Amino acid sequence: MLALDYLFAGLALGAVAALSGVGMLVTYRATGVFNMAHGAVAMLAAYLYWQLTDPWGVPEWIAALIILLGFAPAFGALAERVVFRPLQRRFASPAESLVATIGILVLLLGVAYMVWGQQTRHPPSLFPNDVVHPGGLTVHIEAFADLGAVAVGTLGLGLLLRLTPLGTQIRAVVDRRDLAELSGVDADRVAAIGWALGSVFAALTGILLASQLSLDPFNLTLVVLETFAMPVIAGLTNIPIAVAAGIALGIGSSEMNLFSPGPGPIFDIWNALHANLPVVLLLIALLVRQRLAQSGDAGMATTFAQRRAAEPTIPMMALQYGLAALALFAPLLLDPVHLRQAQAVPALAIIFVSLVAVTGYSGQISLGQAGYAGLGALFCAKVSGDTPELVALLVGALAAGIVGFATGYPAIRRRGLFLALTTFAVGTFVSRFVFQQPYFTNGVTVRRPSLFGLSLSGDHAFYLFELAMLAIAFLIMYNLRSGALGRSLIAIRDNEDGARAVGVDVRALKVLIFTVSAMLAGLGGALLTQQKLAFDPTDFDPLAASLPWFTVVVVFGADSAAAAVAGAGLVVLVNSLVGQAAAYEIMVGLLAAFLGRLPGGVAELNRRAVEWVRTPRALMRRYVEQTAPRPAPVLSARGRAALDRLRAARAERS
């Protein structure tokens, strides 16, 4: 009886997980874009539902209909029109669309945080919370109502895709958009409908989950992100399998309440496994699968624009590096409070530079960089009590590098979306099973290093030490970019199959770049912890850190280490001025959402500006040449004779 009670109790969570998975599959099958912002849309819909029902007193069903029939489809259609249609029209890679969805996610998180704050909300349930006891069982009406919503939505979607002309058009547009347009299909209308349907499923997911979980910007969004396991298990193709996996997840999680080991380490591990079952399922599904049904080219070559400007002259380089040095050394003149805030810039810059190494130089998407940074920080803090601080710093970087080496092997056969989801799952797994477990984080002490007997605990001395570490990171990046190694990495970024065909050892280089990137991230994470003199697990959360960090690096120019440092400075500056982390997320999210209009980000904009300043006359001459009307071609004697015969023949026929 108790097992059946838990089974029925798990139906509600399982149905919502299935609904979320179906929504992501809908968007992917209709548009070819894996919507990383699905959870953020669900979160925003849940907040709007709470706003309508609680403060404004709108009845629950009317509020739900306003959101599901008004806000959600309008938001999906607007996102398609403003963000994704420009990407589609210039045949951008799926990776670029993935970056745009991450930008929308970060933007919506920032908006929700700024408008509603982090205070927990409790929206009312859309369905009755009544409990019935047929045959001695405990059955929640809400669970079957959620299951009914999943059944109706999935059945209607299946009929739409299988039996209607719209379903045929959707499949045609996803497979080959150009051929579908040639056959008369309005691809823009089909894509807008797909985004609208996906947003409706996301909004319904948020409304149903909001009454079962505490509502705050990060909690609900991350819960929905964990349901990535459903579409992954379904191979991004099979909706019934996604539904079955979601219901099985809910029932399995509920049935785990029947087993409770005795106190001890096993009890802690069991509780962590129970609380994070979707994360474990996602990681296992990604590691077991050999491939995913990715639409289009999964490469990253077009995501980051190549350098179009000429190599800078020596005076220009001197000016740029001089300004950078002034900006980095300027915090030494600040008061102690602002200097402590500025100490986060070099540490964060090293983490961002590590993302440039793996993403900008080799074209591999890494959404779990905060996990490597947190591991470096944690290992450094663990051993700093018994070893010199410099040795502890090295241990933290090496420990993160070992994990990066292990992560590099699954990345050998993965690229694009598949690799992005795998790195996100690894980072989330590390956050949940290491950083949030008291067994690993309790009792750690963090001290700043000393060098040749000279303590660097002072704010000025520690900041100079951070700048020295940043210089070492730049030296490593220079060696990665120069010579045969740099050319090989660029070849992998531009065309992995082509690089393999000309003899580049892609397997070894992927493992190498993941290892070096993880070591740099571990070094930056350890410095960030030493700057705060405490290990804070929230600093390395996958949603609050990994995704926003990746977005900042891409927006500022993923192939430029200097741009990564500028991005770190902007993050710290905005946070210091506004006092809220959400401020920089809104700005960066907006830029990332519109990245399709400027591939290469801020760094590419700077290159264009430098080129214009250096060669305005050449650019003006090129513009005049391109826009001037072309003179009529001069015909030869034979051509003129042929033209005369053609005119005579036309005159004779007329």
Number of helices: 30
Q: Kindly state the number of beta strands.
A: 4
CATH class of the largest domain: Mainly Alpha
Main pleated-sheet profile: 2 strands, antiparallel
Helicity level, as a percent range? over 70%
Mean pLDDT: 81
CATH topology of the largest domain, by name, is ABC transporter involved in vitamin B12 uptake, BtuC
Q: Pick out the low-confidence regions.
A: 297-311
How many distinct domains? Answer: 2
In CATH, the architecture of the largest domain is: Orthogonal Bundle
Rg calculated over all Cα atoms: 28 Å
> What is the percentage of strand-forming residues?
under 5%
First-to-last CA distance? 95 Å
Apparent shape: globular
Instruction: Give the class from helix and strand content and strand pairing.
Output: mainly alpha
Description:
This protein is mostly helical. The chain folds into two domains: 2-116 and 145-256 and 265-288, ABC transporter involved in vitamin B12 uptake, BtuC; 314-608, ABC transporter involved in vitamin B12 uptake, BtuC. The protein contains 30 helices and four strands. The protein has helices spanning 2-31, 38-53, 60-89, 94-116, 141-163, 165-175, 177-182, 187-210, 217-226, 229-233, 239-255, 265-275, 277-288, 314-329, 336-342, 344-360, 369-383, 389-408, 416-435, 438-441, 459-481, 483-494, 496-501, 506-532, 542-557, 561-578, 582-593, 601-614, 616-627, 637-653, and strands at 131-132, 139-140, 450-451, 454-455. It has a two-stranded antiparallel ribbon with strand order 1-2. Strands 3-4 form a two-stranded antiparallel sheet. α17 (369-383) packs antiparallel against α18 (389-408). The radius of gyration is 28 Å and the shape is globular. The model is unreliable at 297-311 (pLDDT under 50).
